[in-house]
Amino acid sequence: MENKKFLDEIKFDFLKNYKNSSLQKVLFPEVKKYGYKPLVIPIGVSRYNVPFDSGYIEKYGRVCQIEFNESHVSLLIGMRGSGKTFLLGSIASRSYKSEVIPVFIDLKGEYVYINKPLQKKFSEQKSLMLKDEEPEGIPVINLVPYFSLKYQKFNFDFVPVQISFDELTINDFYTLVKREFTDTQREAISKIFSLKEKGKIKNFYEMLEKLKKMPKFNYQTIKQIDTSIRRLIDYGVIGSHYNFDVITPLKEGKAINLVLKGMPTEKKSEIYNYYLAYVALLIRKIFHGKENGLIPKKLKILTVLDEASRFIPNKGEPSSKHEIKEYISRGRYLGLSIIIATQVIEDIDPSAYAQLKYIFLSYNVGLDVLKRICKEWGVIEEERYYFSDTVKSYYRKMTKNIRTGHRDWMLIFVENKNGVIFRPLAPLFYHLSE
Ligand SMILES: Nc1ncnc2c1ncn2[C@@H]1O[C@H](COP(=O)(O)OP(=O)(O)OP(=O)(O)O)[C@@H](O)[C@H]1O
Ligand SMILES: [Mg+2]
Fold first, then answer.
1. Which among 40, 87, 212, 358 is least surrounded, fewest beta carbons within 10 Å?
2. Which atom belonging to ligand 1 lies closest to the Cα atom of 407?
3. Which atom of ligand 1 approaches the CA of 409 most closely?
4. CB of 222 within 8 A of CB of 188?
5. Would you tell me how many other CB atoms lie within 10 Å of the CB of residue 284?
């Protein structure tokens, strides 16, 4: 309730500044009207309760719900085309109605029109919405890395952003510049970054100047570092023209969508890592903002991280991985939750999902993956190597339902060692899943 009161206040502030009535309409519609409860989010219609542990079947209501009373980490595993974008959108759009602000990391530009209501092809299907629900968009700001604009044109509203001098950490720098440096070069880099920390260098040009004048290092050592920094400046990857502001929109009650459309799939590509550094910065800004009180304490945030294996890979240490781990470990006390979505669980760093509350599995992950998950999180006893026939038959039903156009999901409540198979509601906002 505290959160609701707080959101009422920011809603008021926001509306004062905004004359646009259609925006007013989509902003925090009365929670009561649709029967939403603060921090409890309906995500689908329950079909079967899954008795993992023999004998005991937890009864869940007809409407399958998840809770945000405490911050938590969820894992969502789904093969290609299993409906990840659809389900994530459903969770995020109803989170917003239940007073949790979503932050998306959007690889394909699937969430760039979420300020518009759900498209008709879905909203006309009664089974995809709760009774009395109306399709409706949520206020969002689409942030696009400035360098990314050089490669493509976008036809949606967006704000370009850049990594500024003050914001760049040494970790980000190593992520941005994939090249191997010698020990001497690393020493020089540490030196200039420590001068930066102490406030003795104020911008990138001073950094380059300082680098040249460091007596201990010869020309050869310096040259490659200098070239790397200049390259990032020339590409506009780092710079101070476009402010990367996430605090203001969050304070105004707007969702944030960091659009990474154009990120190559090939890890070797130089620009692949540029995108990783932008994710690192977004995540860092959120938890620093919370810690420093720039983002109000009571505001709950849900980060939606699709294709998470790129940002928290099992192999490699990009700065995005470092920041996401920080977000998860500190987030518990700060009202920060995250959903980590992936196609293959092995591709993700295991420490990123150590403390899970919810696990979502698509119809096509296979019984082996289900079994592995259940063992790993103690949902079934370790010495049991089989599922009961009931679990198997429910699982098969889930797979068969795909023929009827439905994409059912299994949700595992890790603490309760229990599960439910549910049919997702559609997102309330417009989305572009293929
Ligand atoms: N629960 C659902 N009910 C009806 N249609 C669905 C459902 N889930 C997904 N779809 C439809 O199935 C298609 C694939 O869904 P979606 O794009 O969400 O999958 P995905 O797992 O994100 O795919 P990718 O791996 O390509 O990112 C889309 O056309 C989507 O609208
Ligand atoms: Mg998708």
1. 212
2. 1
3. 1
4. yes
5. 22
